[in-house]
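Q: Here's a chain of 212 amino acids. Please give me its 3D structure as tokens.
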Amino acid sequence: MAVAKRRPPEDRRELILDAAGKVFFEQGFSATSVDAVIARVGGSKRTIYNEFGSKEGLFTALVERCADTAISALIQNEAQGHDVRTTMIAFGSQLLQVYQTDDLIGIFRTSLVEAERFPRLARTVYEKGPGRAASYLTRVLEDAKARGEIKVIDCASVANHFVSMIRGNQYLKVVLGLRAPLTGSEANAFVKSAVDLCLYGIVAPNSPKRKK
């Protein structure tokens, strides 16, 4: 009789996070139990508690995984020496894609609903998610500034503006179920518009209305 192979720990961790993401998306943080996650993925409570510590630890790990995926585009493009516009387009595209996953939509819905009861959870979502993404983009912009590629005084403000633009009204419609996720050429045009607004603005360079 063949013996079933045990999955490597990293694969098991990903399966648990996949299951947790679905349960949090469907039930919210308060209603989600570790038992509900186990019912999806199998195993035992001990496995989850050993790996993540608690339900909150499981939720935090899910947020961090989403952020890691988004930030990977910045890391890859920077390592390849791409210009700041190319890097920001790749990052924005990855960020938008991650934001529109069931995991992230569930995380944002949960954090909004549960923020008053679980303020630490809301802080975790911001610091491990959008806050971390903006911080990493700030460093990328600072490097571009040092190379003379951009002329900007406050890179942190630009980074925060950019992340907020990706998470703007179009994304809000997706979260509220008012439209399907942005994909293909629509998503590409949306991200490029956000990048170019951050890098170039909309006032003509030679306009008398342009402030120095």
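Q: Can you summarize the key feature?
A: Confidence is low (pLDDT under 50) at residues 1-6.
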